[in-house]
Design the sequence.
């Protein structure tokens, strides 16, 4: 940071954010945030976007980073603002997305006397990668610099900067600082040789890609070259989706309870699984029931993730690009596995035939979700950015919506909280203003964030929101536990008129019932500027993605 004489605390924070490359601040103004709000308004380096609810604020920053690779800052009042933002901050932490979250905190001298919005700072320790709280003006620059460094040190993640509003608003001279990341290097030469031997001798290798491949500098290239070298079919976690292009015949599918049965058999038959940048969370491993072959080579930048869920025969601690390149150098054309393209293509063909036999691709009405996804995919340009919310519709979309580049498909990982799709789409549109954005959401997820349609209108996001409207919390109603706990009660409702709601926010909107109408509506929306909502009627009693797998 540049040395300064006497300045306001808000100006010190603003300068630190700019020097860190932040060009977007997402917030919702409150009395305590006004000093930093003012600093942003008076300068031109950082764009300010105002959400309609604090819950959406980190989701916008998350989508912005996933698509553009740039770190956004977020700003809320303490107490209710911070706690509303915790959902999105925890989602970002699970997905290793750096966010610099500034909380205009209560002044330390007022704590314990019930000032407005007061909450114990340690409340947020488990929702972020680091929780840095400024106690004195002279510590401001060091604390903020340390927080920024922590957010960007692999494994990256959100950092909360608790800066008391009084410090933001007061003038003082804070000393300049230099902060460097603390890193531990792990020697992997011996383990690397073991991994190369296992992979070179493998007859049935499988490549499993996770979110670490998305974060790694050249993860996409390394995954493709390893698939070529090993002749391996490729499975992906939720966060690994689109790292390997899904029009490649070697793509097996996205793991979880909904993984096609044939892909599960392939993982069971594998003699070696090379897992890159995954933590094997419960969501994407069907609660750790997914087989991982006879031998497992596990690569992760975080040593704490290796062996936590699946025992690794060969642990390799390091970044996917560095370790992957070392594996490629060691293999050097010696691997001779099975025909991954033939194996994976047979799995995908079997899966599609299973869905067709269950009449899930009909033209409607009413439509089933696979038909909705197929119609939307047909009319969505390859360069478009796609975001998803969480729910039953998401389970289908990660399996069926063909994606080709990681920065063009945004979905949450293991945190799996609803209400993320629309604000993520706003962030995606801010990061890629020249690309159309398509948000795939269920009606339940949309109801948790529908207010952000107003933000999309105000920011002029070129957005198509496709609402799979089955009038049900389908994941719950279709859960195997539903009979045991509720005697089969379904969580259905009479849906609100989404078209009228969207129009009230200033969006274009249309209700469709058939695949043909949906294709036409999506094509028109993609061609037209601004946000459009497409409300699609879907069968309430359709099978879940897990049931159909």
Sequence:
């Amino acid at each position: 940071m540049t040395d300064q004489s006497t300045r306001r605390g808000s100006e010190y924070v603003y300068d630190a954010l700019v020097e860190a490359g932040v060009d977007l601040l997402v917030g919702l103004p409150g009395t305590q945030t006004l000093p930093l709000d003012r600093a942003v308004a008076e300068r031109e380096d950082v764009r300010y976007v105002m959400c309609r609810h604090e819950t959406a604020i980190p989701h916008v920053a998350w989508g912005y980073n996933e698509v553009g690779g740039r770190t956004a800052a977020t700003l809320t009042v303490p107490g209710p603002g911070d706690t509303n933002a915790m959902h999105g901050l925890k989602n970002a932490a699970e997905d290793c997305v750096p966010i610099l979250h500034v909380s205009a905190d209560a002044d330390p001298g007022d704590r314990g006397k019930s000032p407005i919005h007061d909450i114990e700072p340690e409340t947020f320790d488990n929702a972020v990668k680091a929780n840095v709280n400024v106690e004195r003006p002279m510590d401001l620059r060091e604390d903020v610099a340390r927080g920024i460094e922590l957010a960007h040190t692999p494994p990256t993640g959100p950092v909360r900067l608790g800066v008391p509003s009084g410090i933001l608003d007061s003038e003082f001279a804070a000393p300049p600082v230099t902060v460097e990341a603390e890193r531990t290097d792990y020697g992997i030469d011996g383990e690397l040789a073991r991994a190369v031997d296992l992979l070179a001798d493998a007859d049935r290798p499988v490549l499993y890609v996770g979110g670490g491949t998305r974060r790694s500098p050249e993860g996409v290239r390394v995954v493709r070259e390893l698939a070529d070298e090993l002749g391996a079919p490729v499975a992906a976690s939720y966060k690994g989706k689109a790292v390997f292009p899904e029009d490649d015949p070697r793509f097996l599918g996205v793991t979880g309870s909904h993984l096609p049965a044939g892909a599960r058999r392939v993982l069971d038959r594998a003699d070696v699984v090379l897992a890159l940048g995954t933590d094997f969370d419960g969501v994407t491993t069907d609660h750790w029931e997914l087989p991982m072959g006879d031998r497992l080579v596990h690569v992760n930048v975080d040593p704490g993730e290796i062996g936590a869920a699946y025992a690794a025969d060969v642990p390799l601690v390091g970044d996917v690009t560095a370790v992957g390149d070392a594996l490629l150098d060691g293999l050097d054309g010696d691997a001779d596995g099975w025909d991954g393209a033939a194996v994976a293509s047979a799995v995908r063909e079997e899966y599609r035939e299973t869905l067709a036999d269950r009449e899930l691709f009909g033209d409607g009405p009413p439509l089933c979700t696979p038909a909705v996804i197929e119609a939307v995919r047909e009319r969505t340009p390859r360069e478009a950015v796609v975001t998803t919310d969480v729910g039953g519709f998401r389970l289908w979309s990660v399996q069926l919506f063909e994606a080709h580049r990681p920065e063009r498909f945004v979905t949450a990982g293991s945190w799996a909280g609803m209400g993320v799709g629309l604000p993520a789409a706003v962030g995606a549109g801010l990061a890629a203003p020249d690309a159309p954005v398509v948000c795939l959401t269920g009606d339940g997820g949309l109801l948790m964030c529908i207010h952000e349609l107003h933000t999309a209108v105000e920011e002029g996001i070129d957005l198509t929101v496709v609402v799979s409207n089955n009038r049900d919390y389908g994941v719950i109603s279709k859960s195997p536990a539903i009979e045991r706990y509720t005697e089969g009660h379904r969580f259905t409702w009479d849906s609100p008129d989404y078209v009228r709601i969207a129009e009230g926010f200033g969006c274009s909107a249309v209700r469709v019932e058939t695949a043909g109408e949906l294709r036409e509506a999506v094509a028109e929306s993609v061609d037209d500027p601004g946000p459009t909502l497409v409300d699609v009627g879907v069968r309430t009693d359709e099978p879940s993605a897990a049931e159909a797998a």
User: Anything to note?
Assistant: The two ends are 54 Å apart (CA to CA). Residues 281 and 451 are 31 Å apart (CA to CA). The first helix runs from residue 9 to 19.
